[in-house]
Design goal:
Layout: H1 3-33, H2 55-97, H3 103-113, H4 117-130, H5 136-159, H6 164-172, H7 177-188, H8 190-206, H9 209-214, H10 222-231, H11 237-272
Helix pairs in contact: 1-11, 2-5, 2-8, 2-10, 2-11, 3-5, 5-8, 6-7, 8-11
Family: Belongs to the binding-protein-dependent transport system permease family.
Pfam families: BPD_transp_1
Domain ABC transmembrane type-1: 69-258
């Protein structure tokens, strides 16, 4: 065996070990989701379920996991959509009218750096006065406030890479501002839109503090629902594993699909230049 082949084999072995270390918690979570309650406490623990069951999925969904997933899906998807709608024109103005390393860009991004504990009490008092406590609307407003600065900053960085000559050519051809955004800016900045949307969706999906303080029993997001499994009952690890897999699966598929779309978008953009 030549030295180059040996080094290549070592490299692949190292990658496999790293992949196993990264995926082993998810694999254990998946196996736990299919174990019956009594098997969860075997000593020594079993790796593969001896009597696989789907009871954990149905019971975990009924005791609060289903509502947590649906509520998280509602508030995270709507807030992400609002962030993209508001952030796209704001990012265009920031990219075209202000220098890339100016104070305004840093000020917008610094709003995202604010610790959540700082505004949460103010939001709580304000929502009590405006009857927004424990409502979807209130949580959507908070998540939009939380993620909009990041969306604007990311989209502005992508738009700065779009040559102004494309816009000038569209204007010479008689394109309106709406046609300019729809037919020129949006397709060219699609990788940035997807990246910002994925990040905003993930941040909203995983957020816990705002959901804990600003909601009661009417709105229960997934992180809050999972926490309630520990607070109000003896934790059933099988149910936690089942709900965790159900909650993690859509994000994994979304990230995988968007990754392929990102690569294709970059290829189209680079090929057109």
């Amino acid at each position: 065996m030549s030295r180059s082949v040996f080094h290549e084999a070592l490299r692949h072995l190292a990658l496999l070990l790293i992949l196993f270390a990264v995926l082993s918690p998810l694999l254990w979570l998946l196996l736990t989701a299919f174990k019956p309650y009594g098997e969860l406490f075997n000593n020594p623990p079993t790796i593969l379920p001896e009597a696989a069951t789907l009871v954990n999925f149905t019971e975990g969904w009924e005791i609060g996991g289903g509502k947590g997933i649906m509520d998280s899906l509602i508030v995270s998807s709507i807030s992400t959509l609002i962030c993209l709608i508001l952030g796209f024109p704001a990012a265009y103005a920031l990219a075209r009218r202000f220098p890339p390393h100016g104070q305004l860009s840093f000020t917008i991004l610094s709003l995202r750096m604010m610790p959540p504990i700082v505004p949460v009490i103010g939001f709580y008092l304000l929502f009590q006065e405006l009857a927004l406590f424990d409502t979807y609307t209130g949580l959507i407003i908070v998540y939009t406030f939380m993620n909009l600065p990041l969306v604007i900053w990311l989209l502005a960085e992508f738009m700065r890479q779009i040559p102004k000559s494309y816009e000038e050519a569209a204007r010479v051809d008689g394109a309106t501002w709406f046609q300019l955004f729809r037919d020129v800016l949006l397709p060219l900045s699609l990788p940035g839109v997807l990246t910002a949307g994925i990040l905003a969706m993930i941040f909203a999906w995983n957020e816990f503090l705002f959901a804990l303080v600003l909601t009661g029993d009417a709105v229960i997001t997934l992180p809050k629902a999972l926490a309630s499994f520990f607070l109000f009952q003896q934790p059933n690890w099988g149910q936690l594993g089942a709900i965790g897999i159900v909650a993690f699966g859509p994000l994994l598929l979304l990230s995988y699909y968007m990754q392929r779309l990102l690569i294709r978008s970059f290829s189209i953009e680079l090929g057109g230049r």
